[in-house]
């Protein structure tokens, strides 16, 4: 019976992830929440050259914010920057070329950034879904390196900057796919058994939810949140999930619809009236587990995840910075 209830709940949830789900939810949005001037505030968006990241960066730029685009591909990033500047008239758009799957690069970037800039809001949007098990130059499974370890290092390395500012925020773009995954700390790099890229991605997204909850407990003066953008028509979906895209392409959200809750969490006063550490969908805090689900993890496992990631982080920091 619990399996049946979960299935019914999940199918209902899937409908909410579509464009129709967004259109229904948006009837209850208050437009004034995001009609704000954020001039003087600094925002960093990873994976900002396309999809939800670019849409978010563009909307922040429209509102006067200083936006730092962190991208892997220099050519595409320069095109995205030019588009944002042209469409918004905001000249305070800065480009940084960083591969989020490379922890040494992240540390080098973060150390330089900390010496040159201030930061009010970090938006962890960069991600990947690699469908075959690939290792990075550091011997890390690529999905884990990008989605989990990259997010962890970028955030922890920039915490000292965020701690200095008033109303500082960290938003991580996760996925509703994490609802089918329980935190698994025994195989963080997916080396055991058959490799399923979709499930590895979902596991990484569960890990991001746990990270957000743990950070919220440890850093009380920063507002942390994690969110599901729904199913949006992005280049990443087209390339990583071609079969899904073909089935769902007429129902997918636009980039801007997928980015709406990211923007709301980044700029609205309403978002920070809610507790830190919550999971959001369409501007609402929603559960991180299905009803009667088996996906709850123990505090010990959650602490172990943080310990393992910190060990990885410090190892690569030492190599990168020669400390």
TrEMBL record:
Matches recorded under InterPro entries: NAD(P)-bd_dom_sf, SDR_fam, SDR_member_12
Transmembrane segments: none
Classification of source organism: Eukaryota, Metazoa, Chordata, Craniata, Vertebrata
Descriptive protein name: DHR12 reductase
Highest taxon, organism lineage: Eukaryota
